[in-house]
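chain below, 258 aa
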Amino acid sequence: MLSKNKIKYIHSLEQKKHRSKEQAFVAEGNKLVSDMLPHYSCPLLIAKPCWMATQGDITTDELIVAEDEDIRKASLLKSPQDVLAVFRIPSWKIEEADPQNELILMLDGIQDPGNLGTIIRLADWFGFEHIICSPDTVDVFNPKVVQSTMGALAHVKVHYTELGAYLEKQKERNIPIYGTFLEGEDIYEKDLSGNGVVIMGNEGNGIRKELEEMVNEKLYIPSYPQGRSTAESLNVAIATAVVCAEFRRRERGQSQMP
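prediction:
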């Protein structure tokens, strides 16, 4: 039986202040929870027998077998599935994200949970292991972000820090710092490196001015055909997909050269 206190605790994790206090977050859904269980510590898991029957050993501090009504009361979703889990927030170290040796994705003020979740999925697909976010970017453990990652949080580490100070250090190391701008160079014609920082800006305002001044490699995603009247800009998640795909296409092409 699922107690009222546990239901209250789960619902409290919808708010960032409680997630920070408890160092815990909620994930729901059959595939999402299955993907995340091997990678995150799980203090509480609530599941229907039908979901449990599809799993092997379930590693959790507390397992509650629930029916539809219990899941419905605990769930943060409009359409609950068969399992809900509370995971502990991990301690990811930003020092692991070294743009000297790899490409790092940087997000400046992303506000929409769906955009952040989609970008995390893209990072996972294109092999970006680290994302560095400004403090005002939406919380990665927001339930809407977690759900929209579709399990990609099992493979991508997301860090929050003051971006200006981080970029200053990278400039001192002569690290390539990329950003997308209307006045940038055509991404399909410009030389791209296999390491560095790639900045994607806020949905409405783009990359803030003080960070733009640190960008030493400005990119532009051209519309097609050139000169045709189009919308002013791409959605940030779509733009991220285009940029990540082009970086990896170049890297793949270079690795296949004789």
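Strands lie at 24-28, 44-47, 63-65, 83-88, 103-107, 130-133, 157-160, 177-186, 196-200, 217-220. The mean pLDDT is 93.
thats it, cya
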